[in-house]
Amino acid sequence: MHEMSIVQTLIEQVEAEVEKSGRSGRVVGLDLVIGRLSGVNADSIRFAHEVLAPGTILEGSTLRISQPAAYSDCRACGVRAEIEAFSMQCPHCGSDDIVIDGGRELLLQSIELEQT
Ligand SMILES: [Zn+2]
Fold first, then answer.
1. Is 20 helix (H, G, I), strand (E, B) or coil?
2. Disulfide-capable partner of 31 in 43, 49, 87, 110 (CB 3.0 to 4.6 Å)?
3. Ligand 1 centre from 93 Cα, in Å?
4. Which DSSP category does 93 fall into?
5. How remote is the CA of residue 71 from the centroid of ligand 1, in Å?
6. CA 97 – ligand 1 centroid, Å
7. How far is the CA of 82 from the centre of ligand 1 (A)?
8. Which domains does the chain have, with CATH numbers?
9. What is the average pLDDT value for the chain, to the nearest integer?
10. Burial (CB count <10 Å: 0-12, 13-18, 19+), residue 78
11. Which tens digit of pLDDT belongs to each residue from 67-103?
12. pTM of the full predicted structure?
């Protein structure tokens, strides 16, 4: 599963960040941003986190995932519409002269460390 390797990378990233910050303590929470068009399934990420976190710096941490929507900006009719899936057409007028904005993010937004 694709998401397993994403979470594996995430764990390494968090370890590196915490080490760099020079702080110690358990990681209690993580904020992830997973765009709706990123192709990454948030439920699979949660599952992978559950499976992989024990024994790592993420053991016992809470995962908070936000899933920003994507928008299509139509250059023909000017309508900006939220889209659920990748689309090549404006949902308003059907023109293919659109620009997809957002929804493809995949990033670690913040790490919450236990207050010591
Ligand atoms: Zn349009």
1. helix
2. 110
3. 4
4. T
5. 12
6. 8
7. 12
8. 2-69+103-113 (3.30.2320.50)
9. 93
10. exposed
11. 999 999 999 999 999 998 888 899 999 999 999 999 9
12. 0.84
The token duo for 27 is 């990681």
Rounded to the nearest angstrom, the distance between the alpha carbon of 90 and the centre of ligand 1 is 5
Residues sharing a CB contact under 8 Å with residue 50, sequence separation 6 or more, in sequence order: none
Angle at 113 between CA 33 and CA 26, to 5 degrees: 115
> Cα of 87 to ligand 1 centre, how many Å?
12
The predicted pLDDT at position 56 comes to 95
Cα of 50 from ligand 1 centre, angstroms: 42
Summarised one tens digit per residue, pLDDT across range 46-56 is 999 999 999 99
